[in-house]
Amino acid sequence: MNEQKLKFEVIPGGGVTSPRGFKAAGVYAGIKKKEKLDLALLYSETEAVAAAVFTTNRVKAAPILVTMAHVAQGKIQAVVANSGNANAGVGPQGVDAARKMAEETARALGLKVSTVAVASTGVIGVPLPVAKAVGGIQAASRALSVSGGHQAAEAIMTTDTFPKEFALRFNLSGHQVTIGGMAKGSGMIHPNMATMLAFLTTDAAIDREALSQAFRSSVSRSFNMITVDGDTSTNDMALILANGQAENPTIKPGSEDLAVFQAALDEVTIYLAKAIARDGEGATKLLEVTVTGAQTEQEARQAAIAIAKSNLVKTAIFGEDANWGRIIAALGYSGADFDPDLVDIYLGPLQVAAQGTGLAFDEEKAAEILHQKEVKILVDLKQGQGQATAWGCDLSYDYVRINGSYRT
Which terminus of the chain is more exposed, N or C, with fewer CB under 10 A? Predict the structure, then answer.
């Protein structure tokens, strides 16, 4: 692969409207109790090839069911998403409401209903105020602009403390290609998928098979490697739209251009995934767990996620306690196959265990490492070439406070 092609340029303040041909808006529709942006609209000037990954929760919200059917047809041109109400657990009226959102978006923008994706996030079990959603769609359709990406990112937030956006551009066969994205997620975060919404856009020309392949691979390395609290919601969705306006030669499966596109896409999804983990409800620290030396990549993933989701590890990180025993305990129940007597463990650059045995490490240095806003744990299993990284956060007093009064 040509190294020149791997030079990605981050776009300052970039997001879903950075690629050519995309507009967005975020408005207050009255769905949330407080007057905050609560309805986002994303629009492509032309129909876009689409790929998506949805929650694996057996209980799926109405918007998921509607969007799954629409994405299966291959092309999406608009996404409408509300926050403040999950439109889940409300019976058949939920599907009616989701369809109404798609129909109203199609009517307002002159699209086919099947090219509209619908997403919702918020409280489960409360009927969606359809009239308010419709009013919001009408307002958002009038407000669409290239500069509206930031408002759209704000409008999909629930307990998030900041909007999550990212975009980069790169060269592909002599053409400038851009990938942008926005995401929301703060609590109920755990694979497969984490509780989140993510919408990505690109002006790359790419066929559906190649896009689906690249997106699933990217999600497996990013959104499916974050954990905040071990819960998986009913509304999770990651969706990418590719409208082809970069006019590059169409990317096909197995091509060198697909490898470059994959690398760029991974940059965007991992950035957004880390932003979600960093913004975990009540979090004070971002936790990065890397497991190397596993027999397979899958076993490395199992081990990394087990450590990152352990409440005992998370509380130790919050308390800045270098309790490495909690790390190896989580490793032991992860399901990964390894020899405990070979394991090395590091907190940042500081080794705290070797050959499965604790070392007499510098406690002050450990405390200094754990006091940082980003804490890295490295575990070497010494069993093979498998490697994976998971991201999470500490578990603080505020997590209970936030979730103890979520509905109120």
Answer: C
Which burial class, exposed, middle or buried, applies to 197 when counting CB atoms under 10 A from its CB (0-12, 13-18, 19+)? buried
Distance between CA 113 and CA 102 in Å, rounded?
6
**Is the pLDDT assigned to residue 2 strictly greater than 50?**
no
How many whole angstroms from its chain centre is CA 166? 12
Active-site residue 158, yes or no?
no
Domains and CATH numbers, the chain: 3-275 (3.60.70.12), 286-404 (3.10.20.340)
Q: Are strands 350-354 and 344-347 parallel, antiparallel or unpaired?
A: antiparallel
> Among the options 55, 195, 234, 389, which is catalytic?
195
- CA–CA gap between residue 317 and residue 312 (Å, rounded): 9
Task: Supply the pLDDT for residue 159.
Answer: 80
Tens digits of per-residue pLDDT, 368-402? 999 999 999 999 999 999 999 999 888 776 666 65
Distances, alpha carbon 8 to alpha carbons 253, 254, 264, in Å = 21, 21, 7
